[in-house]
């Protein structure tokens, strides 16, 4: 498995370029996968450019991986050569804590091992992601891609999909509920599709009038322009849930006011301090809940794939050649992609 072709960043300002990496030999519980497609997540950009100050270089991003099994370890029981499979945001955890035993490996008390920029629990090596030809992953952290799903469209479900599906399922969104989705990017458009498939009445909150038609095309029943004071006033105390997909600092207070009493505002995009400050009265006087949610555990990741196959839900994607990744990063930062780039890894083979 040595000398695997990949694209890597070697410094915060290096961009991504061809880079050879070594993949480990199969352990007893490992699955070897030839990667067909890999989605591009904004998190990839944050790590490549060391925005969070924790990147280990060289960095091979990519945690929306789909492909086919090429080999399995002696103890693997669930997969065979040729199977369509996926790998998401994590490749290991302690497997022994309460969270892991509950199938919530993303909340592992010892910390999950991320697909890239993590430390392998066995040999201490740095994990490399899906911008590469191949990957080797423990069977527990591999999922099956249903035959009804197109492989390229399935890739973003392993991050953008599970990130929005998990909180909607956890908090019990169902028919009769009113759900507001804040933001219309890669996460937001999946939030709309899932909430609607679960039977909810869905409203998109966006700052742009130009996105009204697109929001309704994606399945939103209604659209609220969040910069319009009258529209926000009309939306006050109307919603059971707000799914907040915005990844940068923004004022939560106006959106909290849109919740009914006992309503829940769920953060899935923001990883920074809340700014401006939260008015606690917006919570206290209506018994509202401000919550957060991180991807999903392995059972739920399989569940979201099966759900999408059953309900014909798919992520909107733009296909990308590996050689154009740096230009794609700039477009993602400017919000110029609808809604998720997916890399055709066949374009890496000639590098």
Please tell me about this protein's structure.
With 351 residues, the chain is α/β, with parallel strands linked by helices. The chain is globular. It starts with a strand and ends in a 7-residue tail after the last strand. The longest helix is centred in the last third of the chain and has 14 residues, at 298-311. A hairpin with a 6-residue loop joins strand 1 (4-9) and strand 2. Helix 4 (160-170) crosses helix 5. Strands 3, 4, 5, 8, 9, 16 and 17 form a seven-stranded mixed β-sheet that branches. Strands 12-11-10-13-14-15 form a six-stranded parallel β-sheet. Strands 1-2 form a two-stranded antiparallel sheet. The protein has eleven helices and 17 strands. 23% of the residues lie in helices and 26% in strands.
